[in-house]
Amino acid sequence: MPAVPGAVALLAGAFAWSYWPVLAHLWREWMNNEDYSVGVLVPPVALVIILLRWSRLRQCRVEPCWWGLVLIALGLAARAFGLLFIYESAERYSIVLVVAGLVLLAAGRQVTRSLGWVLAFLLLMVPLPGVAHNLVSAPLQTIATRGAVFGLEMIAVSATREGNTIMLGGSVPMGIAEACNGLRMLTAFVVVAAAMAFLIPRPPWKRVFLVLSCVPIAVACNLVRLVITGVLFLHLSSEAAEKFFHNFAGWVMMPCAVFLLMGELWLLDRLADDGETPSQTEAATHARPAQRASAGAR
Q1: For 14-47, how does the pLDDT look when each residue is reduced to its tens digit (9 = 90+)?
Q2: Residue 108 in 3-state DSSP?
Q3: Domain limits of the chain?
Q4: Which candidate, 220, 196, 190, places its Cα nearest to that of 268?
């Protein structure tokens, strides 16, 4: 359909013009809020996933669907709700709904179905709403404090908890601020696990397990980081401990997440053999759109 590329370019331009203020605010949030800075990686990772699945997408029948206008209308309604009631998260989540509507309108149901999980992945670029952030942040801070005390005592470092402060050696206070609760690491691990679940051919239950397991893994990694920080805080200086926590450990934990998740997949493959190799799973996954297209042609 020669008109499709022009229509897609026109719709994309209209979307960018309309949502420019929302996208600009979202960019500032990524740049200024460390807890959600990983959101800036979500759109490029989604684009890489699409490119890697391009051969599969080419097998889908391109047939514009007018139901896309319904999704676009719902997205614009969500945005209007956010504007009227000063609920910024509604405006941001409406981006994904409008993008899904544009894909359905321009390319049709088969392409939209093939990109369904990629579109869902885009939700991870949006910071949690304020209420959800508070519900998650406070318990994480408590878990971080209690877990760090337990870990320090396990390596024979005297530590007691006073609220969200840890007394090291009975006299050296180390505060566990909100920034130390591990939310930044958790959001990063979720994005990494979700991307791996899309890219690595495995049965659906293993992919779901991989994404869900990144939560305890992120919490455990943050506790290890806090324990090492506490030892440095006690025996070296607060400056050295802060540098380790915010600089060195921050960079190390992301590759660590990848290795841990890969190790988890290896262990799952050994413990639960589905009788199907990853290459066979990938081949079957790629074959489904072609079968649907041929059935539709008949």
Answers
A1: 888 889 999 999 999 999 998 898 999 999 999 9
A2: coil
A3: 3-127, 131-285
A4: 196
Do residues 112 and 100 make contact, with C-beta atoms less than 8 angstroms apart? Answer: yes
- Helices 183-199 and 130-154 pack at an angle, to 10 degrees, of 100
Contact 145, 229 (CB under 8 A): no
| CA quadruple 53, 56, 57, 58: dihedral sign | positive
Q: Could you report how far apart the first and last alpha carbons of the chain are, in Å?
A: 20
Q: How many CA atoms lie within 13 A of 24 on its CB side?
A: 6
Spatial separation of the C-alpha atoms in residues 146 and 228, rounded to whole Å: 15
Specify the amino acid at residue 40. V
Residue in this structure with the two tokens 């890969």, named with its chain if needed: 262
Q: How far is CA 39 from the centre of its chain?
A: 7
pTM confidence score: 0.79
**pLDDT tens track for 83-118:** 888 889 999 999 999 999 988 988 888 988 988 889
